Amino acid sequence: MEGSNSKELVRCYCGEVAELTTAWKPSNPGRRFYGCRFYGISSACKFFRWYDERAPERSKEVINGLLRHLNDYEKEKHPKQQKGNCLIFILVILLVLLVIALFFAFTVSVACLDGRKLMLH
């Protein structure tokens, strides 16, 4: 049923409406197919039917190359993202310490205004 009408309901062997999914394996990157919606469950019926026609080899090479570049970029970006998360964590800790210090300073000043003697050593 390659290139079938998108409005057509395809049913799997279970009698359920099959899900339209995209394959990302190197042999068929970006190619869509119908499969049983219970895939991965032991009671799935193993239904499979291509939705898209087979892509030319050059298209597969280009898509796979782009996916490799994207994966490389994500790997390179990850350490920078961790460093950013660490800086945010440090800033939050500093902010909490500042709030505690301000609260303590306010408490001491209120105690002094109440006429209590505060002895600091």
TrEMBL record:
Keyword Transmembrane helix in record: yes
Protein name (Swiss-Prot/TrEMBL): GRF-type domain-containing protein
Annotated organism of origin: Rhynchospora tenuis
UniProt cross-references to InterPro entries, sorted A to Z: Znf_GRF
Domain of life: Eukaryota
Keyword Transmembrane helix on entry: yes
TM helices/strands, residue ranges: 87-113
GO terms for MF: zinc ion binding
One Pfam family named in its UniProt record: Zn_ribbon_GRF
Residue ranges constituting the GRF-type domain according to the UniProt record: 12-54
Keywords from the UniProt entry: Membrane, Metal-binding, Transmembrane, Transmembrane helix, Zinc, Zinc-finger
